[in-house]
Amino acid sequence: MTSGATIPARDRLIVALDVDSVETARALVARLGDSVSFYKIGMELAYGGGLPLVEELKAGGKKVFVDLKLHDIGQTVERATRQIARLGADFLTIHGFPQTMRAARQGAGDSGLRLLAVTVMTSYDDADLAEAGYSIGVAALVSRRATQAKDAGIDGLILSPQEVAPIRALVGPQMALVTPGVRPAGAALGDQKRVMTPGEAIAAGADHLVVGRPVTQAPDPRAAAERIVAEISAAMGG
């Protein structure tokens, strides 16, 4: 997957369906209509019976990102990745450990499923890493995992918008850079710590932006999504 202006502005916004039921997810998708083309199914919805939505959304012409952050023994990761590929998902997250990435790459094969390695969660900062026993900070750990992901043949990275510019320079144009931690100006940060606005993230070199609550909990989700797409388009020079 190449980065750059070949990705339309609307396809760069990924709306996170971080809800607890399939019915709520379907209602959101219906309300958003053609304003959104790409959705994320995370743990809450997946574990609430939402994985069949992958095929349903694909049948409706949408793209789907399955965000399960796989991390287990190699055989389990390989087999789980193969199952997600069979559903027809476009993206799948795995944790950025070399053994995990190699197993997922084997499981994905030539299915077309694109693997995204999580570098450092966007809700973590240097203090959180120190508390967990890491001797290096966020920037160094993101760089290390980005290099390892590229070496493992992974298609892209999950990282905060603050790391996009240096990591783009490190890994080149071929890897997809997907950024949570994106908040429109004036929006509550929630549990995110390393954030930028949509326009700033795109200008830094991000390919896709994952946005949840600023869209799904807005009084008018469709209007909120359209504002973000417009900001993305403006940052692309459109």
Q: How would you characterize the overall build of this protein?
A:
The structure is a single chain. With 238 residues, this protein is of the alpha/beta class. It has a single domain (9-235), classed as TIM Barrel, CATH 3.20.20.70. Helices cover 46% and strands 16% of the residues. The chain has helices spanning 9-12, 22-32, 43-50, 53-59, 74-87, 98-108, 126-131, 138-151, 164-171, 198-204, 213-216, 221-235, and strands spanning 13-16, 38-41, 63-70, 91-95, 114-118, 156-158, 176-179, 208-211. Strands 1-2-3-4-5-6-7-8 form an eight-stranded parallel beta barrel, surrounded by seven helices. Strand 1 (13-16), helix 2 (22-32) and strand 2 form a beta-alpha-beta unit. The radius of gyration is 17 Å and the shape is globular. The protein starts with 8 loop residues before the first helix and ends with a helix.
Question: What are the defining features of this structure?
Answer:
12 helices; alpha/beta; 16% strand; TIM Barrel; 238 residues
Name of the CATH homologous superfamily: Aldolase class I
Structural class by helix and strand composition? alpha/beta
Radius of gyration: 17 Å
**Proportion of beta-strand residues:** 15-25%
Question: Would you spell out the secondary-structure blueprint of this structure?
Answer:
Layout: H1 9-12, E1 13-16, H2 22-32, E2 38-41, H3 43-50, H4 53-59, E3 63-70, H5 74-87, E4 91-95, H6 98-108, E5 114-118, H7 126-131, H8 138-151, E6 156-158, H9 164-171, E7 176-179, H10 198-204, E8 208-211, H11 213-216, H12 221-235
Parallel strand pairs: 1-2, 1-8, 2-3, 3-4, 4-5, 5-6, 6-7, 7-8
Helix pairs in contact: 5-6, 8-9, 10-12
